[in-house]
Amino acid sequence: MVDTVLFEFLHTEMVAELWAHDPGPGGQKMSLSVLEGMGFRVGQALGERLPREMLAFREELDVLKFLCKDLWVAVFQKQMDSLRTNHQGTYVLQDNSFPLLLPMASGLQYLEEAPKFLAFTCGLLRGALCTLGIESVVTASVAALPVCKFQVVIPKS
């Protein structure tokens, strides 16, 4: 429990620090890029550390299931609520009570602030996938707080 609170506090402080000086439109993209990059590095480290006991993943879907179960539990102490795929390289991961959005879930006025709280996690997913041998593009969307959908697109070579 203490680790969860510390992680949420650290994440909130990272976002607040990057937006502390009103970065403006160009600066916002840079701040999102910095958060995503930090998440990518953490995702790489977790991707190296967590699956040591597991056999090599045979398919992309196995890797995504690993992210939804094991990685999500390691980071957020809960599993992802849903994983959907079109079996052509696009996966949608949904968390109905995303922990980093719960503090702002009380009103719609925070909906426009949500993307800056998702950049780190997009990087985290992309970094873990990269370590497990899958290049991807990860985006996040929020239609209603605290529900969050992460779309993972894996380009076919």
TrEMBL record:
Signal peptide: none annotated. Coiled coil: none annotated. It holds the Pfam family TRAPP. InterPro entries: NO_sig/Golgi_transp_ligand-bd, TRAPP_component, TRAPPC6/Trs33. GO terms for biological process: endoplasmic reticulum to Golgi vesicle-mediated transport. This is Trafficking protein particle complex subunit 6A. One of its GO terms (cellular component) is cis-Golgi network. Gene3D superfamilies: Trafficking protein particle complex subunit 3. CDD domains: TRAPPC6A_Trs33 (cd14944). Part of the multisubunit transport protein particle (TRAPP) complex. Heterodimer with TRAPPC3. The heterodimer TRAPPC3-TRAPPC6A interacts with TRAPPC2L. Interacts with TRAPPC2L. PANTHER family: TRAFFICKING PROTEIN PARTICLE COMPLEX SUBUNIT 6A, TRAFFICKING PROTEIN PARTICLE COMPLEX SUBUNIT 6B. It comes from Pongo abelii (Sumatran orangutan). It is found in: Endoplasmic reticulum; Golgi apparatus, cis-Golgi network. SUPFAM superfamilies: Ligand-binding domain in the NO signalling and Golgi transport. Belongs to the TRAPP small subunits family. BET3 subfamily. May play a role in vesicular transport during the biogenesis of melanosomes. It comes from the Eukaryota. Keywords: Endoplasmic reticulum, ER-Golgi transport, Golgi apparatus, Phosphoprotein, Transport.
